[in-house]
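Researcher: I'm comparing several assemblies side by side, and this is the next one on my list. It has 770 residues spread over two chains. Same procedure as the others: predict the full complex and return the structure.
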Amino acid sequence: MDLHQFIQLTVNGLINGSTYALLGVGFALILGVTGRFHFAYAFTYTLTGYLAAVAASSWGLPVIPAMLIGLLVGIVMGVLIEVGVYRPLAAKAGTNSLLVIFVASLGITIAGQSAITLIWGLNAQARTLEAFKISTWHLGSINFTNLDVLTVVVAWACTLAFSAFLRFSSHGRQIKAVRANPEMAQAVGIDSRAIYRVAFAIGSIFAGVAAILYTLKYAAVPDMGQRPVFYALVVAFIGGTARAPWKVGLTGLGLGLIESWSGNWVSAQWSSTIVFAVLLIYLTWQSLKSAAWARPIRVLAQQS
Amino acid sequence: MSPIDRSVLDDSPPEGPDPGKDGGLTRRHLVQRASIAAAMASPLVLAACGGSDSGSSNGGGGGSSGGGSGATALGKQLNKYVGPGGPENGEGTTWNFGASLPLSGAGAFFGHEMEHGMDLAVDHIKQAGGPDFAVSYEDNKTGDPNAGIQNVRELGINGVAGMMASYLADFGAELPGIAAYKILTIDPGGGTGGSFQEEPYFWGSRALWPEAPFPGVYKYVAEAKPEFKRVSLLIWDNGASFVNPAVKALEEAIKPHGLELVSVEKSAAGSTDFSTTIARLKSANPDVIQVAMSGADVAYFLKGKAAGGLTAQAIGADWNPETQKTAGSTADGFWFSFDYINAKKPPNPWAKIFFDEYKKKFGAEATWLAANYYESTFIYWELIRRVLAEKGDINDGTTLQSALEADPEFPSLYGGNSGEAGTLTFDPKTHTIAKREISLLELEPSGEEKVLATFGLGGSDYKKVA
């Protein structure tokens, strides 16, 4: 194994893992608090990144206001999806709401992506966003950019700030209460529906920040949200939807490292497969821990 | 009440029972069912990637004829280069034509370029006194094999005799249907590649991609950069039938010049993050990276290459203004080589008409993709002309193909001179083109393209320019 390659892959993994942390924290919040399988996370992600790029390039806005507009629209869209789509469907579907909401969110994602393509994507599919000159920094033979450093700093600042918010603020305690038991929370006077809206707003902020960082690094394209939502799902499942955000973030970081280290042995096109393999192994392990038929295996494992 | 097992969710101490959010689900059930949903999501999303099918615009039955009004002024100009019009050449006849293009997904932007090229050709053919092409555009969702198979089935059932393909007939997925329905198919975007030559009813009207330029490119590399010895290949992983011929062609091209293939990196089409690939390439330490990818992937690779401090010379097999916009200054000094046509320097009068009219109609500069699809649509008119002259059936793909095999020469936007259009010649054996001028170009910081060398297929007629 080439040591320089390994170190470079580790640095790459820390950078990518920080992005996965951002995505996972937002997705875990929404799933944990509301129980909604918000696949349309991909759409709010794409909308934020794309709108920020369009606002800067086509509308001529300065970069920071363009980013803020993208972020704001993403937040509003996330909340609107909850209020206008998920909640009415959940009220009607009852015990089947999980599947119904998933299908609805899939439809929103496909329709939203197509709408973005129709409105902005036919004549210029990829939209770039430039906030500053990206320069490469070197530590010996290891390379990364100033944008990579910003990505790591912003990702962890958001994650740690949100962790502190949940732990130390009254609103944070309300969110945790609803996450634990929405009916009990309602009974003690917490407006669960309002907390749901807050969860979607904060989750959309995390998606939006990740989208803007992605757009700065690459470009906004109409289907840019598909891969991130799967990574967010993996991080949320493995990290836990009721865990502290910083713990979920560490799961994202770990996933980034595993994905990057796999490059030592397999070609890069298998990286997504590696990520899903990790999820599969985790879910299989969880099943084995509780399945009755696996009891002999658990006993054997304990004895050995 | 027994505590709920929250081990799937977190490691916090068990709390009381959680009736869940909606209708009494426990959190464990919720996550379990969500994980099932997640497993369902992957194929659903992959299948639905890119959105809906394009609408078909199928005209009525073919073969109706009637008197025509003659060519327009533009049409008469075109007649000088593409042949005559009139009722004996199909004027007044409606002819069903199909296309399987990437109208959604990551390649949608390029699919619409292809569509524009065909639309313009259909309009020009009519103006030049040719038939009415009733085109059915089908969406292959950027090379999705299932979508491609479905497209060919629909076109075959609708009785089209000719069809334009892309992505090497969806990387071969469409070929069985093309042969079964006997649809004369031309792929001006991907060509036949090394793997899909000699396939029944399938022809490529561009140089083999990505391997056709290799002999000329590496002759130039050896002459201009004798210090370059190590070559890496970065290629889309579209299966062994695509990758292996390209690797073999590259090895054959570099070996005579003392260069060595030190690594082959594969990438999934549509990738944006090349950080792992860059790290592996740096480890291989090449002097040259031959890039066998297309579209935005090239731009993202160049961005990653710059960020990763990889200084090897990148040589691409594809380039277009959209890619240039995405790559920005990271594309400075990039070399690329393929059968490329420059809108700013049309090689012949027909090409000039094409570029001028394209800009007028669509408000943007045409790229080589639009040019290729435009040019190839005229091939079908020429075949219809020949079949009509023999009183044959223009709605029979076998008859059209026989006409192509009997005379494989057609007017071309490439080559030629200030007074004449160029010539495109097919090889009846391989079903790919037999002759094409290829350029090796360098992107300068000003955005201009500097010609480094020109050569034909196999590196023939090689000329070092810069």
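Model: For your comparison table: The mean pLDDT of chain A is 90.
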